[in-house]
């Protein structure tokens, strides 16, 4: 399989039917499942969140269509400008941003609430791919490594300044994966890991808000404080567990419908799903995520150039970290942080970012035979 | 390096990382979701149910208590409270209901609105307690317009004849921590339970079973809907053996004196059980005030004591009945054997006085009983010895509980040599036997024991277990209808001991002597005589302090005066009613206790509780026939 990407199609042209449908199918099924679950999670509210989320889905599909038509090499060329634009938005957010639950992450544009951090993720992935794909050595040299570090550090710090710890971590994870894929000398890698550990310690001490520290502490001993910071984990686990194998039935989850579960339509959407659809539903959803990653990897491996490979790898890393962290946190395996679940959680910017990522991945696959 | 090699390197890493991500997802699925949902799922399901369901107790009305004729003794008086269910009315409807409630209650609208809006409990808000009947009517007739109103009925126990039945029925109170722990889950905190008397002993039947309304609540504890309801099982009513009219007559006869009256059928059915002074049990219905409680504790005569079962006193001369039985049965004493009473006798070099300083002269058993001659029984006591006396006392039920279904009964005391060595650390002195022979000294009995003794004498040695409850309502029966029966099946069982192995002739002799006590000249209980009724009985005087010189009781301070006893049954040849009267510091039995018994017998006859006797006792044919 690995050797096949250079095979050229008879006509020498790209065909839509040659594009791998996996990511799109998984994304659409997950998004539909998400719409149903969001409706259930907001059923007892004055107005269901379903129409809003459906609008986001439609917007996401439009974005997908538009970006799919653009050659990713054009986007890579534009990457510095996109990146710069994203940084400007981030800085603007810091000053005139809208604050929700302690995080100043939103820009209000008319009726829309935009979360620049989501788009910054894509711009950063594009710029990183451009920088990392350049060399012709098996391992990255220090200069390029520092370059990559700087590219990711600036937006990561700006987002950390917004108090959005989850997104910051996702940035770091994506960048680390892309660097790892591009190749790092083992000794350097060891040094970086050490440096990272020291950095994490310093961050714990000086960079974190008390509530963030308490979340982690409460995660480590959740039983000590059932009504305080441990409340969310507890209610989430009760919701997930009470679904048992087949679930309590759609719109029948007591934890969700009676509002015991916090953040039902956003970060804890998985708990609602798990309660109402049971382990069976969870297995299907996680299977779709696995399908998305699997088909994504396949596209990466057969993409036309290293640029495409790196870009797909970065986008998949971003996606995987979101999925893994969110699903593990909902079931109590990781401390709670504001990290949404791709295609399921309620939120416009995040939905659009994910469909843009699908568009990029499909675009790369679509153009795997085309000469530039 | 060639492009192809670089690509292969990248591809290898991407493939590896992709596989890693998929494996991690699988790990989360198994270690997270499989564990929580499938392995521990049932436990979390239960927690989710606990999260959303709240149990509200529905208390059932307590069973009623009737006397033997179905007269109501203890009932439940409703008290109406207004609850406001905010879930039942929203927006304008709620505002209208609030305004209407404010009008009915005469409270400012803003105050009611604030209370309703601020309420967060699971139960609807208790807006007003103890509504007047016009208020209840105003709220009820408009119920369709104001579904938020819930008229809650609460029951308060009312004892109609408060003091007159206080000790017998007992009272209610909130369950204490120790009772709760001992109840093994049968009770819940906050339960009101029987604390004394029948209310306590028959609490399980009277209270019925508490019901439960399970409601669904949201995360803020607001009630959303009803889920499941277990209806309460109403309490079962009791019909007592007690006759209210006789009880009242006994209370009246005793007057304001401290003491006790027991009126009992020979089979153990109690028709009256009076202890004075009494207290008002209604004070306990919703928590007694500190001042009222202190007043009860400070009362010099201790109104909380049930003197019929809780206080033990020396029996005085009533004990001579047991002495006579022991003499006839154990020693085979010839009832015609005569003893000369000079007003005293000298035994063990000690002078023992008879109460009659002039002496009774020559007396046989019957005359000694009639005149309550101490000398005769002191000499009989010397011949019997303490162990035989104690043996017969026990056979007639002294020194042990009678088994009446009331708590805190005292067993009294029958002294003998063993008791003396164990409790006093000294041997029994023969001189003490002489005191016990006339019912003084360390021997102690309760009025209820005296009643069972008299019943045993009346019916040839079958001693009954006193009982109070004739019938208990069947589960689910209408509590307002007095339960039928009284055959001892649903109430206290009818139980008597097997007849004592003593010749019926001996019982008849003693009965005849007791008849003479009341009905013949020279008898000590002439004041218990009732026209047309052959009462047989024995007076008793229990010394409070040992007297060196004979001082008239009337000249003594009230608290050291003798206790007066009178124990009787009637009619002597067809025994139907045992009456025991005890007057604390009342002086002599003949003067203060016997007349009370006479009054009780007259009342019983008037109430039709005693069938008239066809042949009067002592009629020549009757006596020669014996």
Please supply descriptive tags for the structure shown above:
heterodimer, A: 372 residues, mainly alpha, three-stranded antiparallel beta sheet, 13 helices, 3% strand, B: 626 residues, alpha+beta, five-stranded antiparallel beta sheet, 20 strands, 37% helix, disordered C terminus
Describe the structure.
The complex is a heterodimer of chains A (372) and B (626). Chain A has 372 residues and is mostly helical. Helix content of chain A is 66%, strand content 3%. Chain A has helices spanning 22-41, 50-69, 72-96, 116-132, 142-161, 165-182, 186-207, 210-220, 231-242, 254-257, 269-301, 306-330, 348-366, and strands at 98-100, 103-109, 112-114. In chain B, strand 11 and strand 12 form a beta hairpin. Chain B contains 20 helices and 20 strands. By secondary structure, chain B is an alpha+beta fold. In chain B, strands 2, 3, 4, 5, 10 and 17 form a 6-stranded mixed β-sheet that branches. A 5-stranded antiparallel β-sheet of chain B has the order 12-11-20-19-18, with helices on both faces. A 3-stranded antiparallel β-sheet of chain B has the order 1-8-9. Chain B has helices spanning 3-39, 41-52, 91-105, 109-118, 133-141, 166-169, 177-182, 197-201, 203-207, 244-254, 290-298, 320-331, 365-371, 374-395, 417-424, 430-437, 447-458, 504-519, 589-606, 620-625, and strands spanning 53-58, 65-66, 72-84, 125-128, 149-159, 172-174, 192-194, 211-217, 223-230, 238-240, 259-264, 270-276, 339-341, 344-347, 350-353, 361-363, 469-472, 536-542, 563-570, 577-583. Chains A and B meet through helix 6, helix 9, helix 11 and helix 12 of A and helix 1 and helix 2 of B.
């Amino acid at each position: 399989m690995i050797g096949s990407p250079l095979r050229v199609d008879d006509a020498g042209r790209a065909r839509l039917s040659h594009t791998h449908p996996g990511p799109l199918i998984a994304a659409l099924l997950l998004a539909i499942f998400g719409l149903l679950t969001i409706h259930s999670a907001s059923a007892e509210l004055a107005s269901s969140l379903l129409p809003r989320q459906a609008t986001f889905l439609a917007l996401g599909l439009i974005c997908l269509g538009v970006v799919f038509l653009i050659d990713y090499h054009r986007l890579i060329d534009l990457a510095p400008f996109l990146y710069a634009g994203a940084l400007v938005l981030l800085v603007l957010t810091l000053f005139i941003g809208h604050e929700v639950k302690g995080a100043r992450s939103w820009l209000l544009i008319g009726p829309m609430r935009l979360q620049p951090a989501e788009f910054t993720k894509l711009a950063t992935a594009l710029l990183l791919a451009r920088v990392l794909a350049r060399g012709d050595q098996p391992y990255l040299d220090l200069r390029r490594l520092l370059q990559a570090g700087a590219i990711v550090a600036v937006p990561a710090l700006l987002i950390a300044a917004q108090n959005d710890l989850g997104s910051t971590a996702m940035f770091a994870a994506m960048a680390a994966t892309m660097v790892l894929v591009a190749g790092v000398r083992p000794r350097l890698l060891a040094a970086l890991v050490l440096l990272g550990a020291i950095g994490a310690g310093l961050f714990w001490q000086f960079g974190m808000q008390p509530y963030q520290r308490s979340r982690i502490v409460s995660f480590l001993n959740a039983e000590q404080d059932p009504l305080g910071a441990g409340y969310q984990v507890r209610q989430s686990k009760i919701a997930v567990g009470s679904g048992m194998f087949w679930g309590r039935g759609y719109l029948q989850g007591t934890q969700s419908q009676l509002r015991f579960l916090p953040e039902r339509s956003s970060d804890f959407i998985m708990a609602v799903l798990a309660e109402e659809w049971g382990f069976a539903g969870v297995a299907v959803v996680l299977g779709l995520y696995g399908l998305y990653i699997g088909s994504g990897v396949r596209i990466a491996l057969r993409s036309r150039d290293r640029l495409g490979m790196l870009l797909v790898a970065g986008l998949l890393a971003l996606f995987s970290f979101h999925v893994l962290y969110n699903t593990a946190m909902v079931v109590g395996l990781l401390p709670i942080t504001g990290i949404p679940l791709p295609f399921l959680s309620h939120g416009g910017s995040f939905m659009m970012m994910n469909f843009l990522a699908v568009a990029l991945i499909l675009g790369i696959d679509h153009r795997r035979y085309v000469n530039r | 390096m060639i492009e192809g090699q670089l690509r292969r390197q990248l591809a290898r890493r991407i493939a590896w990382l992709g596989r890693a991500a998929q494996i991690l997802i699988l790990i989360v699925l198994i270690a997270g979701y499989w564990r929580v949902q499938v392995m521990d799922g049932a436990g979390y399901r239960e927690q989710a149910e606990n999260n959303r369901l709240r149990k509200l107790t529905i208390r059932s009305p307590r069973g009623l208590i009737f006397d033997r004729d179905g007269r109501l003794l203890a009932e439940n008086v409703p008290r109406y409270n207004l609850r406001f269910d905010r879930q039942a009315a929203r927006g304008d409807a709620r505002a209208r209901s609030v305004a209407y409630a404010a009008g009915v209650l005469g409270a400012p609208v803003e105050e009611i609105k604030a209370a309703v809006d601020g309420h967060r409990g699971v139960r609807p808000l208790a807006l007003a307690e103890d509504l007047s009947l016009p208020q209840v009517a105003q709220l009820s007739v408009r119920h369709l317009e104001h579904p938020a109103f819930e008229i809650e009925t609460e029951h308060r126990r009312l004892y109609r004849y408060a003091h007159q039945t206080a000790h017998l029925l007992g009272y209610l109170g909130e369950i204490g921590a120790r009772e709760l722990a001992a109840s093994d889950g049968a009770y819940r905190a906050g339960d009101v339970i029987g604390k004394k008397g029948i209310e306590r002993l028959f609490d399980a039947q009277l209270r019925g079973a508490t019901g439960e309304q399970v409601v669904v609540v949201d995360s803020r504890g607001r009630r959303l809907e009803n889920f499941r309801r277990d209806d309460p099982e109403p309490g079962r009513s009791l019909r007592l053996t007690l006759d209210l009219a006789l009880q009242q007559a006994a209370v009246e006869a005793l007057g304001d004196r401290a003491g006790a009256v027991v009126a009992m059928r020979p089979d153990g059915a109690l028709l009256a059980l009076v202890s004075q002074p009494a207290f008002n049990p209604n004070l306990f219905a919703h928590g007694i005030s500190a001042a009222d409680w202190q007043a009860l504790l400070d009362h010099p005569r201790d109104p909380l004591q049930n003197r019929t079962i809780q206080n033990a006193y020396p029996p005085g001369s009533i004990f001579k009945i047991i002495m006579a039985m022991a003499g006839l049965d154990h020693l085979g004493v010839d009832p015609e054997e005569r003893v000369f009473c000079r007003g005293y006798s000298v035994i063990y070099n000690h002078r023992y006085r008879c109460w009659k300083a002039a002496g009774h002269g020559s007396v046989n058993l019957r005359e000694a009983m009639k005149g309550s001659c101490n000398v005769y029984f002191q000499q009989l006591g010397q011949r019997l010895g303490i162990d035989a006396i104690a043996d017969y006392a026990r056979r007639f039920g002294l020194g042990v509980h009678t088994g009446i279904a009331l708590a805190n009964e005292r067993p009294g005391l029958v002294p003998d040599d063993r008791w003396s060595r164990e409790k006093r650390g000294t041997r029994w002195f023969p001189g003490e036997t002489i005191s016990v022979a006339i019912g003084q000294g360390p021997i102690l009995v309760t009025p209820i024991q005296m009643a069972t003794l008299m019943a045993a004498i009346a019916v040839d040695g079958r001693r009954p277990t006193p009982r109070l409850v004739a019938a208990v309502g069947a589960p689910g029966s209408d509590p307002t209808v007095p339960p039928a029966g009284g055959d001892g099946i649903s109430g206290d069982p009818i139980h008597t001991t097997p007849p004592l192995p003593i010749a019926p002739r001996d019982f008849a002799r003693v009965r005849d002597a007791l008849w003479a006590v009341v009905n013949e000249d020279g008898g000590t209980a002439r004041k218990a005589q009732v026209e047309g009724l052959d009462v047989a009985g024995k007076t008793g005087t229990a010394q409070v302090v040992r007297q060196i010189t004979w001082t008239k009781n009337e000249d003594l301070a009230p608290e050291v005066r003798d206790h007066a006893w009178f124990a009787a049954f009637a009619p002597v040849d067809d025994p139907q009613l045992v009456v025991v009267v005890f007057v604390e510091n009342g002086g002599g039995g003949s003067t203060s206790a016997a007349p009370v018994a006479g009054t009780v017998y007259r009342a019983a006859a008037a109430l039709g509780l005693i069938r008239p006797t066809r042949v009067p006792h002592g009629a020549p044919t009757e006596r020669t026939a014996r």
